[in-house]
Automatic annotation (TrEMBL):
One of its GO terms (cellular component) is axonemal central apparatus. InterPro entries: WD-F-box_domain-protein (IPR050995), WD40/YVTN_repeat-like_dom_sf (IPR015943), WD40_PAC1 (IPR020472), WD40_repeat_CS (IPR019775), WD40_repeat_dom_sf (IPR036322), WD40_rpt (IPR001680). It comes from Rhagologus leucostigma. PROSITE patterns: WD_REPEATS_1, WD_REPEATS_2, WD_REPEATS_REGION. The lineage of its organism: Eukaryota, Metazoa, Chordata, Craniata, Vertebrata. Keywords: Repeat, WD repeat. WD repeats lie at residues 25-66, 67-108, 109-148. Signal peptide: none annotated. This is SPG16 protein.
Length: 148
């Protein structure tokens, strides 16, 4: 199964090798910039130009949580390997760590001078890697909300 998102505001799961669309999700009001399966495979996260991050439940075939807090488009998203946290990167120059269980922002990472274009948790750690339009990469310890 492959997961995609695009300018049509939809995410899609595709079966291979046939290339059939297995499932489609709609709800964002602008382009999708990122999509990622939860490590358990039961949910996914999407990020969008509409400034939101959404959590989708595949068995319910719908959005179960919309995370709001960025002031500009969200450029990327990723799950922590434990499945309880989602990270988002935004054109507002910040990244956020979201607690999926409490449905709130746990930490806001500030320090890039321009758009944060991607974010990724290092597997089985509290370290996040961000990349920015300011031509820098940063490693963050999300427990202390500081750059490494």
């Amino acid at each position: 199964i492959v997961l995609t998102g695009g300018d049509d505001r939809l995410w899609k799961t595709w079966g291979f090798p046939d290339g059939n669309i297995l499932m489609t999700g709609e709800g964002h009001t602008d382009w999708l910039s990122g999509c990622c399966f939860r490590p358990s495979g039961t949910q996914l996260v999407t990020s969008s130009g509409d400034t939101t991050v959404r959590i989708w439940d595949l068995s319910r075939r719908g959005c179960i949580l919309t995370l709001r807090g960025h002031s500009r488009a969200v450029r990327g998203c990723s799950w922590h390997s434990c499945g309880d946290f989602v990270a988002s990167a935004s054109m507002d120059g910040t990244s956020k760590i979201w607690d999926v269980n409490s449905a709130r922002c746990r930490y806001t990472l500030r320090g890039h001078k321009e758009s944060v274009n991607s974010i990724e948790f290092l597997p089985f750690s509290s370290t996040v890697l961000t990349s920015s339009a300011d031509k820098t990469l940063s490693l963050w310890d999300v427990r202390t909300v500081s750059r490494l």
